[in-house]
Design brief:
The structure is a single chain. This protein is α+β, with helices and mostly antiparallel strands. The chain has three domains: about 70-135 and about 180-220 and about 395-490 and about 655-695, Alkaline Phosphatase, subunit A (3-Layer(aba) Sandwich); about 230-345, no CATH class; about 495-640, no CATH class. It is built from 17 helices and 38 strands. The strands form eleven sheets. The protein has an eight-stranded mixed β-sheet with strand order 4-38-27-3-26-11-12-25, sandwiched between helices. Strand 31 and strand 32 (about 580) form a beta hairpin. Helix 9 (about 390-415) runs parallel beside helix 11 (about 455-475) and helix 10 runs antiparallel to helix 11 (about 455-475). The radius of gyration is 25 Å and the shape is globular.
Length: about 700
Amino acid sequence: MKRSPPLIGLLVAWASTAHAYVGPGAGFALAGSAWTFLVLIVAALSALVLPVRFALLWWRRSRSRGQARVRRVVVVGLDGFDPGLAQRWMDEGLLPNLSRLRDQGSFGPLKTTLPAITPSAWSTFQTGVDASRHNIFDFVTRDPKTYQPLLSSAELVPASRTMPLGRYRIPLRRARVRGLRKSQPFWKILGARGIFSTIVRVPITFPPESFNGVLLAGMCVPDLRGTQGEFTLFSSAPDEKVPSHGQLVRITLEGQRGRALFAGPAHPFRPGAGPLQAEVGFAVEGAEVVLRVGKEAVRLKRGQFSPWLAVRFAAGLGIGVYGICRFYLLGTDPLRIYATPLHLDPEHPGLPLSHPAAYALYLAKRLGRFATLGLAEDTDALNDGVLDEDGFLEQAYAFHQEREAMLLQSLATTREGLVVCVFDGPDRIQHMFYRTLDPTHPANTHREVAGYTQVIPQLYQRMDQMIGRVRERLGEDPNTVLLVISDHGFCNFRRGVNLNTWLHANGYLALKEGASRSGEWFAQVDWSRTRAFALGLSGIYLNRQGREAQGVVAAGEELAQLKAELIGKLGGMVDEETGAVAINKVWDTETHFTGPYTMDAPDLLVGYNSGYRISWGGASGVVGTAVFEDNTRPWSGDHCVDPGLVPGVFFCDRKVQVTDPALIDMPVSILRLLGVDAPAYMQGRDLFVAEKEAR
């Protein structure tokens, strides 16, 4: 059977609803088979120079070996793993493998970044520089021309020319995805010295960059529809409500059989024609359902997930667009089926999922189909009440098992150099179940608590067991260093703070004549009279002259006075309903940072106290009536707060010489372990030398 050419473009745009991480969407464009032919030509030419290239890399590697302290460094990233919780459960004897790692080597808190947000923190891990030098301050930034949100990590450079062909428009040039993170990952520096790296699912590695190694991209890989994760609910219930963060597809049953059209990406060759569609068939057999997609069929019981199923969307001209998803039977009377977001098919990747491009295909052939979406664990479906707690946990641990198989495969194939693998499950599960550690959490109202009080302790135990398996694979190898780290820790999220509502009430944000509120994305904001606004999870932007399209705040004394006012009023803000301090501190980015991308950041970064975070509406540009509100969503724990409250975790099987390790120290330390001098621009220290020397 002839296979169609792959998707090759990404259009950065916004989904119609705010996701848990305020995640923007993306659309796709196709290219013709001529590009496939071109790739083959380039590959053939590359083969002619490979012997010379490998000889050069061998020479560079031999130079590094003489200075190397070890042959291999393995980094296991446990996103969100908290040092306080780890200490508590080690003391209780629940984490024997991590306890042994602590006793034999090192353990402690790992200073996170400002802001303490996943994309910013892992970007610092990659580059060894702060946010003002790698330019990732949040999941999103604002377009200074439109004040609308943009994905901070990637953008599309679209195809500049198309050719009409009947009702189709065929791109003549390839669209290109451009990464927006600045600086360079330290494994690229290793590669230039001939040291090979295997990098698996580190956040903010999409699109993949070329280097001497293999890489599978992580956070911010979109789904096939171009969003950061939009699920589908199939339902025959006539009164089914449309979920806030997913699509509803109504099923009409004739007897016990029915069919529905699964919406895919926008039509790549016919702008405005609507999404591509694929048929899904259903046959209800008592308490079970037989589900058919294409040539694959599966029988599901209530509360059961299907394996990954391939979905092909015909685009015309003999071209198909491929995705994969898993289905979960919610019930048969009425028939209700949840479908995960449409992940890019690693066997037919429509976007650059890996470096080299064949690495994703290799993993799929070796280990089976796997999740490719950057934010794979579907927190939106649980927040919306479509997926229940048990279904969410089953999904999260299935993704974890896929990732662990990749890590163990990497350890077997990368005997020298660097291996990094990041696990997202600890972060997502703590976000959704932190309420179970707090019996009085507002999110517990009308929700089951007693059956889930052990979810987070069991999560830490599962991670401990995995570390045990990793150490067993590594054996007693004196030439391998193992690091287990996290980008940040965790704390409670009981109350949300809507900064836009506060800014409006205090005269800093103006609404259009007659408006008292604003919907998402500043729908009713009057920019000609607005001096400050909040967007995303990290801070506040000022409407500056010469930067924003309708800027009103002049540089110099006016700007300085406005910053001082806001810092003074917001720092130490008290929630009058609870009497607690909601905001510990506010940072002026131009005072705190010195890097070249400081002007692209929020002008003020807000450090919330434990128990608080920006509200859901505040993050997406809503101006409401209340500054403070209870957080009643299952998403009940967070880390977008004062960085001093949420350090990451640091374990190492060797003793370190620095008493206050930081995430920013990781690249320098790993480079020097492998015999490579760190570039002078890196801001971290070598953790494995005496502290005075490291400074």
